[in-house]
Amino acid sequence: MKLNEDQIAYLEGQMARLAERNPSWKIQPGDYKILFPYLVAQKLTYLYDDEVFELLTSVDNQLTGKEEELLDHYLILDTGEEVQLKLFQFKFREKYDGGVSTKDLYAFVERMNKVFLHGDLQDEKTLEAFKEVRDAFEAALKTNPKGRARVHCFYIVNGQNVSPSDSGKLEQIRTAFQGDRQTYGFTFEAYGGLDIFNLCVHGRVPIQREVLELECPAEKAFLHLNIGPNPNGMPIQVVQGFVNVNQLIRLVDRYSNNELFERNVRLFLGVKKDVNRRIIETITSNHSSWFGFMNNGVSITADNVVVNLPPSGKKLRVMVDNMQIINGCQTVNALYHAKYDPSLKDKFQGNSNVLLRIYHIDPANQPFMEALIIATNSQNAIRAEDLVANDPPQQELEAEFRKAGVAYERKEGSPNGGRFWLVTTKESAAMAFIAVFWEDFASKLRNSASRREIFRKGDEYLEIFSWGDDQPEATRYPSETIKHRAVQMLAAVQIDGAIREMIADSERDRRRRGALRKAAYFLARAVYLQNRAGIEAEIKSLNAANLNQSSAQEFSQKIKNLVGQSYPSVVKIFDQAMQAYVQAEGGDEDAALKNTAFAKALEKAVKGKQGKGGSST
Questions:
Q1: Which of 103, 122, 377, 615 would bridge with 327, disulfide CB 3.0–4.6 Å?
Q2: CA nearest neighbour of 454 among 48, 54, 81, 75
């Protein structure tokens, strides 16, 4: 199915906004062919803007002059439990036409499979062409020796996905690589323009109609409440019964990009956590048949449910449309690991059942849907960032920034409703704020999990998104009013943005530019320390003045000027501190950037330079 004009306009708006809120990328808002990979990679990985720009590496021959065949970009993601190598081939057409060729898809998947899993089957010339990617992946695995290596391939077009007439060929390709999927975690996905549109709008690719078979060993082995349409906001149907664990594992296997869990990919706790370790121990033990009675079960929502009552002793077939697992993420993922982990699969018998609840809910009945998600397990349905999008402080900041002509996107994909001279997100603003104003915190921002923890409404969240009397007692950088906080955030966003622009403009060497981008939050903090008195004076001045677009732009220019003046000196101090730290502690720059000890060392170095006649504090 092709995208219509409105859907194309929406995607191009999303790409343009990505460029507009990241001027340091030096990509024009209308350069959709270059922006498309960044947009897609971000929606598939849920990375923040700076993360996806840093991690997504181009190896396309037309863009780089390199020789890697069939591969356009790669991205290495360390989740702790896994080190994931994501390999991309993009086909972008200006008219959004064309589609997925199963012949080209197979050629891409086969080449990636042989190069990265079965190098012994490839000639040396081919392996040499992919040396940069292979070396980067091996380095990431050495950094996290306990992480399981995973290779994910993505074949992406902005036209149509695989046509219905070729669906059989797609399944044949899946079957061809099924063994490596089970043994090595090798997966591939093909996405068309409509899939990318759905990722942007809904956060996931809609699930196809699926059939689940509930066990019916006795006459009353399942519960079916056929409530029907009702004025009380209740579900239309509820079905409850036991299902074999292999059916749930099959769904995870089929929808390998976590479509079943919307944006839940970051929230799986991993196989080493007690709750999941116990699940795996039970399901692979001699007591695996006990599992269904010891587990809380899995809850599913669906837009439509069709129940086919079985003859006596047969399985109950339930057809579900657009299903979502809203509770049981840990259970289902742990079961998947138990079956496909090479060290466990011989112990997995597959004879266990688990309790399943299916809720047929009218898609328009959002109040009940949201209440059910929260009541069962709100974490599994939406990101922590999304859960706070409608908080009063977020709405107040959006309104306050609007006075300054700044678009503050508190909800992903939300329309701006006007023209703005600056676009930022609540995530970017929060990261810049704590990097600039909180001591020794930049190192924690190198960890994706630490970033997301900030939005779980703990002390850190309250420190950032509160003001006046609502602030916690030990707030590190307080503000008097909502206006005061907005001005502080604007200063931080401009310091961070100016640093990234300086890196892009002044550093010609690609590796050096990449290294400094990783250190951008550290450099932003150093600039603030060197210019604290001047920056605080500008914040105080704007806070006392009328906040509008003119005053905000004048303020921002003054902040940028301070960054420009300090940039050469803070980079020099950073380089010296990094060299001294690595020599003393060992490791490399990436390891140092993730260590609070280096953040402290840099802070001390900047303050030491000031004490010897450096910039004003």
A1: 377
A2: 48
